[in-house]
Amino acid sequence: MQPTLDDARKALQTYWGYSGFRPLQEEAIQRVLSGKDSLTVLPTGGGKSLCFQTPAVCLPGLAVVLSPLISLMKDQVDGLNACGIQAAFVNSTQSAEEKRLIAEQIRAGQIKLLYVAPERLLTARMLDFLEELSVSFFAIDEAHCISAWGHDFRPEYRGLKVLKERFPQAAVHAYTATASQSVREDIVRQLALKQPQILVGSFDRPNLTYRMIRATRRLEQVKEVIARHRGESGVVYCISRKEVERTAAELKQMGILALPYHAGLSDAQRQNHQDAFIKEQADVIVATVAFGMGIDKSNVRYVVHAGMPKSIEHYQQESGRAGRDSLESECVLIHSTADLATWKRIMESDSQTTDAGAVTSLEAMHALCVNPVCRHRAIVEYFGEQYQAENCGACDVCLGEVELLADAITVGQKILSCVLRQQERFGASHTAKVLAGSTEARIEQMGHHRLSTFGILADEGYDAIRVWIDQLVQQGFLDRNGEYQTLSVPEAGRRLLRRDGEPQLSVVAPTRKR
Ligand code: ADP
Ligand code: ZN
User: Coiled coil where (predicted)?
Assistant: First the structure.
């Protein structure tokens, strides 16, 4: 007889001691129990693991879990064993004898979940071995690794296509936190899933308070956040390894228990630092994007981005490492337009990512940073969800920390008319310099010091004007075109010049004079 959702609920209580499923988990589990393919999209911390672990316990036979990282497998298997569930993994860290023992246990039906990496699963030996058994289903964790459009492409995932051919009777279930529609479609196609049920959970994390602040003195700004969370666990993300090292050293010097984490460290060092963080021997991990996948530390109270991440997907995942225990946590993103340029440079030098999609993702991230609209709303809307609340009560904009310009219409009009007077042939920094009344030679060479808009925003300063131009672009009052990113005034901008429309511009504290 087929196990039911009630059986799964009982297992949840018996083994994990949890009282009930989260809404989407029920549907995902129901689908696994029914034996038909599925793709489940839940944000980091959303509870994907239980979606395949509970049915694995209820269904007869062996569930095979594909997982990209050895450390991740070990943590999950240890966790399951601690709950009294028979689970095992096979990987390169084990001796032949250990592997033989596990194979024996599996043949004897003593194992419910087997964790394995794709490259190992795809060996002829492993496939033959599994074919002799009764596999209840395959669970593909971090399934976005199969898509070159995702942010963590692993070519070895591509081979998983053979599962539907070799095991036609076993369902395949894919799990990911990556919500983009194209990655979703790619997963379904690459795995050859049969009429899969696609479940997408909410990407809102109501217990996270978001703040997005413009970089003035980054290190000081990072320290301020840490000071608000003395003795609590936090993660500081930096764009480059060099910045990671420098920031970690600075924090250490101040007596903060901070450790670096990036791909330039040895495996052993990385493991040590991660362990120290999990065991609370270190308060802060300063890391590049290399840190994260599979880190299950529930009481991270804050995540600071010392630089802008390259996509909202990355931001959602990285900031999502805070507050997995559902308690209030803070996410602070420190950004500047320079970060945008840094990423473009990195993308250009890295041929794998020089596609238009990467640049679009990057620009969406920048828009999120500079637009003074509710952060919770902006994030979930990016993932295609509706957002109900007028005021989330948990972001800098809704908390009134982002001061808005009272006369945004007039300021917007000044900027737009400057763009028109320059014949729509110049970029953002040149325009900002003209409006600020810069004495740079190039401005005189172009004769722009004679424009009526020259210096009309001199009191506001270059930096503020530069931010407003970004905000006007993001809000559709200005367009940016072509290789030189020249500014032009679209229809919405022309309406604004007739006082029809209202941009949201933020008050920008002056940092440096130009
Ligand atoms: P994901 O893999 O989606 O990032 P996890 O599966 O690691 O998320 O789950 C995140 C946390 O939420 C874990 O600590 C897990 O035990 C907890 N959790 C998941 N589902 C439930 C539930 N139904 N009830 C209580 N806690 C849950
Ligand atoms: Zn808000």
Answer: none
> Could you tell me if 320 and 207 are in contact, meaning their C-beta atoms sit under 8 angstroms apart?
no
Ligand 2 center–CA 397 separation, angstroms: 6
Alpha carbon of 45 to ligand 1 centroid (Å): 6
Q: Note the pLDDT tens digit of each residue in 311-334.
A: 998 999 899 999 988 899 999 999
Q: Tens digit of pLDDT for each residue in 231-267?
A: 999 999 999 999 999 999 999 999 999 999 999 999 9
> In the prediction, which pLDDT does 15 show?
96
User: What ipTM does the predicted assembly reach?
Assistant: 0.97
Classify 395 as helix, strand or coil: strand
Per the listing, tokens 């023992």 go with: 101
Paired tokens of 115: 């964790």
Which of 16, 27, 40, 49 has most ligand 1 atoms within 8 Å of CB, for mutation? Answer: 49
| Banded pLDDT at 512 (limits 50, 70, 90) | very low
* CA–CA gap between residue 319 and residue 208 (Å, rounded): 8
- Is the Cβ atom of 18 under 6 angstroms away from ligand 1? yes
Q: Is 486 helix (H, G, I), strand (E, B) or coil?
A: strand
> Is 51's C-beta closer than 6 angstroms to any atom of ligand 1?
no
3-state SS track over 259-315: EEECCCCCHHHHHHHHHHHHCCCCCEEEECCCCCCCCCCCCEEEEEECCCCCCHHHH
